[in-house]
Design brief:
binds guanosine-5'-monophosphate, inorganic pyrophosphatase (n-terminal core), globular, binds manganese (II) ion, 6-stranded mixed β-sheet, 6-stranded parallel β-sheet, about 325 residues, Diaminopimelate Epimerase, Chain A, domain 1
């Protein structure tokens, strides 16, 4: 392929020279992370590499259809790799427990689309204009001329589709539709993916959503919406933490809301926040960065220690400040 970025050649050269490869992703993996990890793993296996695919967390139920052979495994200490490739992980810390198990490696490659990526590897292919890591992996596979099998197409379509909110977010580009079209041509099973990912939820998630609708709060002239998910809410509804994914979109969708925030109790003194912005001038990646988090302009997150109410006060104050500055 003509005029392709040198970074792709460097990555392909690193992969060519490697026999054992470990593909890793971020904690609490989403569709883009699992789709990118698995898509790349399957492609590398087809190229005759010995590949491990590690994540601190198990594959969420609604993505399990992508991994019938249980390729995604929890990390094991003490192993050596010619090459480790991280996908969709904005920082080394986001790899969680995987981080401590991949220090014996010759080459470390980081492929990601987060604006906040800290470029923690030897080779960093960070393209913040791409709406998903899946689209970058697709470009890598195409450049390498590696076959995109129907199983790989399923993984990459899921990655592209979930990180664009089904091609709705403004990050979606004309090329995103081309990539999606090409993946369908190569056998991505749209009906299966849509059914598994979007059209079926466990009852526990619906109960959690009911809790969200009953308990969300509005402030700052209805421009900020927020809600809490406590451990007790998960226990009471029978939901697990992966069931909370996407709940924030229901609150973000309320017409006057500009910024939505989820506060999730991880430990009594550790809160995970999820932020979404609908305002071009409010960059939630910058708000998350105030709390050592990161992400994208319109979607970001952080983990914040301290008493929950103080966390809430500080985060809401930061959002208000950003909204006031945007006026
Ligand atoms: P979500 O709110 O769906 O968990 O995440 C939204 C975006 O922010 C994702 O791209 C995710 O990778 C990023 N993100 C979420 N939590 C954190 C965090 O604690 N640290 C960093 N650096 N990024 C995060
Ligand atoms: Mn992503």
């Amino acid at each position: 392929m003509k005029n392709r970025p040198k970074i792709i050649d460097r990555i392909l050269e690193g992969i060519r020279d490697s026999r054992t490869i470990c593909v890793v992703g971020h904690v609490r993996p989403d569709g883009d992370c699992i789709g990118s990890q698995l898509g790349l793993t399957l492609a590398l296996q087809n190229e005759g590499k010995k590949v491990w695919c590690w994540n601190e967390d198990i594959v969420p139920d609604k993505l399990a259809f992508l991994d019938p052979d249980k390729i995604v495994q929890k990390p094991r200490p003490g192993m050596e790799f010619d090459c480790v490739i991280a996908t969709d992980a904005a920082s080394f810390e986001r790899l969680g427990k995987v981080g401590a198990c991949i220090n014996k490696r010759k080459l470390f490659i980081n492929i990601d689309h987060h604006q906040s990526n800290t470029r923690y590897a030897d080779i960093n292919w960070i393209s913040a204009k791409e709406p998903s890591s899946g689209e970058i992996i697709f470009r890598l596979l195409k450049s390498a001329n590696w076959p995109i099998t129907p199983a790989i197409a399923d993984c990459l379509f899921t990655a592209v589709s979930t990180d664009t909110g089904s091609f709705q977010y403004p990050s979606t580009r004309p090329s995103t539709y081309n990539v999606a079209g090409e993946l369908v041509k190569r056998g991505a099973d749209l009906a299966k993916i849509c059914d598994e990912v979007y059209q079926s939820y466990p009852l526990s998630r619906v109960k959690l959503l009911k809790h969200v609708y009953n308990n969300f709060r509005l402030t700052h002239g209805d421009q900020i919406a927020y809600f809490w998910l406590k451990k007790a809410d998960f226990t009471r509804t029978g939901a697990d933490t992966s069931d909370s994914e996407g709940l924030i979109d229901h609150i973000r969708a309320i017409e006057p809301v500009e910024v939505a925030c989820l506060f999730e109790e991880m430990e009594p003194e550790m809160t995970r926040i999820s932020l979404r912005s609908k305002n071009e001038k409010v960059n939630v990646n910058e708000i998350a960065a105030l709390f050592n988090g990161g992400g994208h302009k319109a979607a970001a997150g952080a983990r914040i220690p301290g008493p929950p109410l103080s966390v809430q006060r500080r985060v809401i104050a930061a959002i208000k400040k950003a909204l006031d500055a945007a006026e």
